[in-house]
Amino acid sequence: MTGGRPRAFDVDEVLDRALEVFWRQGYEGTGISDLTRAMGINPPSLYGAFGNKEGLFKRVLDHYADGPARYIREAFAEPDARRVVERLLHGAADATTRPDCPPGCLTVQGGLAASAGSEAARDELTARRAAGEAALRLRLEKARADGELPADADADPADLARYFITVYQGVAVQAAGGATREELHRVVDLAMGAWPAGPAAG
User: Fold this and answer.
1) Which of 25, 48, 76, 191 has the fewest CB atoms inside 10 Å of its own CB, making it the most exposed?
2) pLDDT tens readout for residues 134-165
3) What radius of gyration, in Å, describes the C-alpha atoms of the chain?
């Protein structure tokens, strides 16, 4: 008889289960025992497949981006910048209030508070949020160059990106606090009133 062989498991399935635990409890509040119990695997299997808790968390974040948060990638595929922002914010209102998922957003809430041993996870989330803002700024810079935005101080791409990302993150925080989907969609509609009006200077 051969012994010690790791139990086979479906990676996507165990990542789904780990995602829900991290989403509900945050990185800091999640222990290895919480993960192995939810994932249905033993600690050696977890370490063998993902390295450690931090490595699993990074895989979960990638899995989240391809699953519940795929609306972000879909929003950036829109042909005009206003529609990118509109779809991003309305997508956040839908995604953070899904009845089949924990409320809020994993990347916003997953590591806001972290002890010294969890700084790497917090830094990973910070970097991902910063990358999202940078991507939106670049898209808005292109919009300005293409004439979609007026060439004045009220349409500065960096300021607009920071504003709309702040709204985006606020939607997640409000959802986690119990705001309804309808309330959040109304907030998004109000926020879109800040979109610069007027023809581009040419």
Assistant:
1) 48
2) 999 999 999 999 999 998 867 899 999 999 99
3) 20
